[in-house]
Amino acid sequence: MFLQRIGNKGIRLGTLFDRAAARYPANSVILDHDLDVAPERGRRMTLTEVADLVDDLASRLWAAGVRPGERVVVHKTNGFDITLLACSAARIGAVPVLLSPKLDGDTVCELVRRVDRPYLVTDQDKLEHHLPAEVFGLARQVLLASGSHEEAVALASLAGSTRVAPVTMPPDHPTLVTHTSGTTGTPKLAVHTGRTFEARYRPQGTVASLVGRSEPVAIHVSFVHSRMFTAMPITILQGHPMIILRDDDPEVVADVFRQAPPGLIEAHPNTFLRWEVLVDDPRRPLANVKYFSSTFDAIHPRTVHLMLTASRRENPQFVQMYGQSEVGPIAGRTYSKKRGADADGRCVGSPFPGMTGVRVVSRDGRRPTKSNPGYIEVRSDGRIVTYLGEHERWEKQADGEWWRMGDLGYRTKWGCLHLLDREVDEIEGIDSTLEIEDTLFARIPELVEVIIVPDEDGKPLPVVCTRDDKPLDLAAWKRAVAGLPAMAEPVQWKLDDLPQTATTKIKRLELARLLKAERTGA
């Protein structure tokens, strides 16, 4: 779209911290964890120090033999150094391929095989406890971010390598490969270019610009997700101190926010859900937040309302953006204290003028409505250029400039987009499982998760998780489901037992499969 193209020279991840440090050299990056690749650096660095670390790691990768255009898979124990290693690889013209620490070893091997003989950056723990031995035969060379292994080269052994000048690749050259959530099977490898990433920057950059430069921006986003590589540049290039969270434990978060109160928070919907308990925390860790932002998945109005209640700022806002790894942010809306708990959570807003477009395609020739939703298709210059090794799958979702999201919905007469369900999650007789889940959250405060999946007969089956795993109040449940479509009796699980993606989405198809096996013995 034309506003995404003006002055788009590509995001240039390799020199990102250099450019930010040139503008704001003393601005801080605050971590809640030590970096495996550089534990001696501590948990608070200036942008100048981070830029130096990225340069240092880039020189070590070069010393290991990595060259421009080659692929570097990063699959290690969770930490911000995953993101820094990606910037380091990009700095020497290589293409980082980021695989979630949560992926199982067999899936990692399959994706490494698809990348075709890359360098692999991992660590001793992954090699000894998670990755099959065959991974050594799939990689050109295995490098270690921490620990040691007789068949791998430790990056620590390459410390002091001669620094290498940055390599600038063309803006349409691949700059990063991330993977999709994998909610419907083996993740796909999404190929981003410098230009597609810069296009994604435009819609999201406007939110951070509303917060004063002196106010920290806190980010709790999967380190392997494409959103990290727009949230992070927006933050540091606009001059905000940056708080990076690996842990979403409310106790840890409250302590970090007490020391450095953020003015804006970017996090996953399920993270905000977990932080509901912070509303009543005497440390008031969310009191200074002016803007809450989430881009990954549907978020429940109850959670939005509680976050806004916790802020003591004048007219705080919750910004929800609708998007996907393959295309970036497409539509957005805001909530306020006056319109939070009672807001329609299925409304995901309107596209960004001049930057993104949305259309809803009929499935049966009739106009898409709530009772007859259509396929949601979008367009944006932020769209990926292919799925690595699976271009035919990319082509199936692309229709010229348009991209099929895999979601069902409709648009109101005012142009607002309503998301009802994923295509694969549709249940016969239910207009929207997401809408029912929103209602149950609002009616039962003790719920921390509720997922409606089809049972072995195709009927809606609610899976519920409660705060502190307390037994579900069945009387409260019966009152809550009054007036809702008929469903099976709820099944209670522990939240940690639900199959999740890197961005804490629940893998609904996998959950349905596990439930079927449990209930039928199949």
Automatic annotation (TrEMBL):
Gene3D superfamilies attached to this UniProt entry: N-terminal domain of ligase-like (3.40.50.12780)
Top-level division of the source organism's lineage: Bacteria
Domain AMP-dependent synthetase/ligase: 17-384
One Pfam family cited in the UniProt record for this chain: AMP-binding
SUPFAM superfamilies per record: Acetyl-CoA synthetase-like (SSF56801)
Protein name in UniProt: Class I adenylate-forming enzyme family protein
Species, as recorded: Streptomyces dubilierae
